[in-house]
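FIELD: query
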Amino acid sequence: MERVMFDVQTLMEIRKWANDISYRCMSGNQPPDPRSVNMALDQVSRALAMFAEMEIHRMQNTHIACDGQSYIKGRLKIAHRSTLPQEDSNTA
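FIELD: result
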């Protein structure tokens, strides 16, 4: 019997965050800040690497020593947050 890595609800959340990150980075509504896009790309890349690591362990039927699902969700939340419009904190 094959192990399941994620439940359907979690996969749907991940898909929603990924789609929203993509939309915010590619939307023509406001030009994206290069630093924010770089941060989002870094976080999404780390999440993808962990997903690949989890798949490798699943295929080799070995245990992974961390909670990959929480790691991926956390990285995507950071990426999503970095693409949100930032309020100017220098107003006085």
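FIELD: remark
The chain has a mean pLDDT of 84.
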